[in-house]
């Protein structure tokens, strides 16, 4: 069965729903627990986020599936746009009309748009400089868009939900 998300369709018209077996089991959680995918938090469809994160943690700890070898990239290992799980050290946190910008050493910037900022823990964001973080989502090549200005990172990963960012160490 399908349980539609708060947003039932994405911008491409695809159905957004959680999938359950005939016995009521959460098939997403089963796939994640077997290491067959990544947990992704895409607001507003985050009702089962805690369950999905727990399932992924279980697979990661047991080194199952894609966790057999770490799929986590350092920013300097990014070679193309697309989904990525990235870990790095925060070198700078700044805010402007484009939102909050979190620079990671190695050429990646995380961006939280102004409209998304209220869903994040502002105190935690203010203390990120020097922290080791893990971020997940769709990396964009800024050089393919409007170009990269001097001092800007080529790669950008927009964060739309707190479930996309985790502090590993301070």
What is the compact description of this entry?
The chain is α+β, with helices and mostly antiparallel strands and 170 residues long.
Question: Explain this structure to me?
Answer:
This protein has a five-stranded mixed barrel. The protein has a two-stranded antiparallel sheet with strand order 1-2. It is built from three helices and eight strands. The mean pLDDT is 93. The chain folds into two domains: 66 residues, OB fold (Dihydrolipoamide Acetyltransferase, E2P) (Beta Barrel); 95 residues, OB fold (Dihydrolipoamide Acetyltransferase, E2P) (Beta Barrel), CATH 2.40.50. The longest helix has 14 residues. Strand 4 and strand 5 form a beta hairpin.
Task: Write the topology of this structure.
Layout: E1 2-9, E2 15-19, H1 27-33, H2 49-62, E3 82-96, E4 99-104, E5 108-112, H3 122-126, E6 132-141, E7 155-158, E8 165-169
Parallel strand pairs: 5-7
Antiparallel strand pairs: 1-2, 3-4, 3-6, 4-5, 6-7, 6-8
In the CATH scheme, the class of the largest domain would be Mainly Beta
Give the oligomeric state of the chains in this entry, treating copies of one chain as homo and distinct chains as hetero: single chain
Coarse shape: globular
Q: Tell me the radius of gyration.
A: 17 Å
Mean pLDDT rating: 93
CATH architecture of the largest domain: Beta Barrel
């Amino acid at each position: 069965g399908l349980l539609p998300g708060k947003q039932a369709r994405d911008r491409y018209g695809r159905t957004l729903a959680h999938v359950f077996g005939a016995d009521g089991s959460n098939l997403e959680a089963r796939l994640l627990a077997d290491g067959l995918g990544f947990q992704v938090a895409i607001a507003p469809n985050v009702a089962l986020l805690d369950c999905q994160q727990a399932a992924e943690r279980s697979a990661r700890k047991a080194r199952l599936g894609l966790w057999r070898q770490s799929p986590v990239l350092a920013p300097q290992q990014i070679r193309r746009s697309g989904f990525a799980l990235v870990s790095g050290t925060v070198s700078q946190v700044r805010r402007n009309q484009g939102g909050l910008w979190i620079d990671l050493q190695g050429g990646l910037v995380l961006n939280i748009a102004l409209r998304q900022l209220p869903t994040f823990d502002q105190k935690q964001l203010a203390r990120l400089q020097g922290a080791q973080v893990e971020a997940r989502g769709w990396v964009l090549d800024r050089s393919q868009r409007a170009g990269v200005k001097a001092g800007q990172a080529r790669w950008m990963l927009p964060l739309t939900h707190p479930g996309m960012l985790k502090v590993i160490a301070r």
